[in-house]
Fold this protein.
Amino acid sequence: MRAATDNGTFTIYLDGRIDSTNAPDVEKEILELAQQRGENSLVLDIENLAYISSAGLRVLMKLRKTQQETLTVLGASPEVYDIFETTGFTELLDVHKRLRELDVTDCPVIGQGGNGTIYRLDEDTIVKVYKPWIGLAQVDREREYARTAFVNGIPSVIAYDTVKCGDSLGVVFEMLKSDTLGHAMRDEPDRLEEYAEKHVALAKTLHSTHVPTGSFERIQDVYHRLAGNLDKWCSKEEISLLHSIIDDIPETDTVTHNDLHPGNIMIQDGELLLIDMPEVTVGPPVCDLIAIYRDMVSGPSGKEKGHIEQSVGMPAEQIIKAGNLFFAGYTGITDPDALKAYYEKLGLLYAFNVSLVPGSGSEKAMQLAPVIMENLFKRVVIPNEQAIRALFKTM
């Protein structure tokens, strides 16, 4: 038996068989290992476990009771999973079947973003392969979000199973012959206005869709979590100010995607469908508009130009043109000066959002934290506190 800690998770690996002949020894060793987990979450990897008897199941129940938390079990073979299911243990433990493995080496790439790469498997299905550091919980959450969106009438793809692609995880989606909206805009520039209208219609559909409580996380909860992780760079008073502004964001049961640029939207038979959904929340529409401003107005002309071109799937100049068409269509503002004034307001809310970025814990955000805190938070957000509160309520 071996164990390893990675990314806040303590994993114990079980191999071979657990039955009445070795259950006492397994119990002793597994409980000793579990004591080493500290504050990390506990996972059992049973991919190489060929059999488990009732005596072995009782060992897992004792482990669960000693840890005072739901025990996650990964990689169960069909035979072992049947044992868990037949005995009712799938209702007591969080048991996951062994993931089927896919080789995407020769599959064409049809999209690429910050979380992963989309490959076409065949004429009927695609697979989104996530970055190697993205764990099962986040992948399963996106698959569940896609299902929830589909059930609630949001234009989205049908999600199938979670799979393993080399060292990464992936989700298989039904997707007939299709491509991203970004590629369609790039390849058919004469239809850019038509595609921008479809983009606007999708956003308005999303922003008028009401979902039951608990369907998606609240945007306020996301912001509060990020603000709570800024104690390395902010004083208690500054963090308290952030929480206070977040508390002023209006409550709503409508949906925001929070990354609604054309590279995260598929186009199939003329219909737009959402596929990249790890950041979906319920919240006011302006939260989506901030992200679209970031990716299609502000970002393409800044230092992130290359990254944004890759994510959205077209040249920066074309992204900005599509962004202007989107906002003119969404807001009804066609006068260039009036649209510029509107962008200035969005830019202020964008500065507030960026001030929360170091709380995400990403390596790049951590490196940029001193600059973000000094230039955006202290010089922009704090002096404009009242304006930011008002804009969240009125835009």
The chain has 14 helices and 17 strands.
